[in-house]
Amino acid sequence: MENNKIMSSFQFIDSYIKSSNIKIHNRNIKNSKLELGIEVNISEIKENENELSAELRLKNIVKINNGNGDILVEIDVEMAGIFRAHNMDKEKFIQFMKFSGTPIISQSIRSYVMSISALSGIETIRIPLINYVEFFKNNDENENKEVK
After folding, report:
1. Alpha-helix residue ranges (DSSP H) falling in 39-148
2. pLDDT digit string (tens) for 15-30?
């Protein structure tokens, strides 16, 4: 089978960690609760003939608390992903960035947080899977604007 018949016109090109910070206030995180904050930004879309490209930045703010309001561990990670599409209109490209690009970057952040928490001498922290369809639906309803 020819690759060009099954390849998506939306492609993940590259990714990198923009920033990362971990603070361990208490290493004993058994029976703790995870709080997760999420920020998504899509850069200005660049157009070059029939090609669109943009950078998607996803930031996860993870807080592990003991249930009494005491923060045990804080992890902030911001990762950027570069995406490109051929022969696609801008609105469809934005939809692909939101609903395909965000989960791709999210999985890299999940892996990164698992690694740095394990290497830091604490129990491995696993960020839960996120339903980004609901995330963006709620964000659009609450803010009445595209996430960019």
Report:
1. 90-96, 102-119, 132-143
2. 999 999 999 999 999 9
Length of the chain: 148
Alpha carbons 121 and 29: distance in angstroms, whole number: 11
Chain centroid offset of residue 117 CA: 17
Distance between CA atoms of residues 40 and 19, nearest Å: 14
**Phi-psi group of 37: left, alpha or beta (phi > 0 → left; psi -120 to 50 → alpha; rest → beta):** beta
In the chain, the amino acid numbered 94 is I
Q: How many helices (H) and strands (E) does the chain have?
A: 4, 5
Show the tokens assigned to 84.
Answer: 């490109």
Please, what's the largest Cα pairwise distance for the chain? 58
Q: Is the distance from CB of 50 to CB of 86 less than 8 angstroms? A: yes
Is the pTM here over 0.85, yes or no? yes
Q: Which of 86, 112, 117, 83 is nearest to 18 (CA)?
A: 112
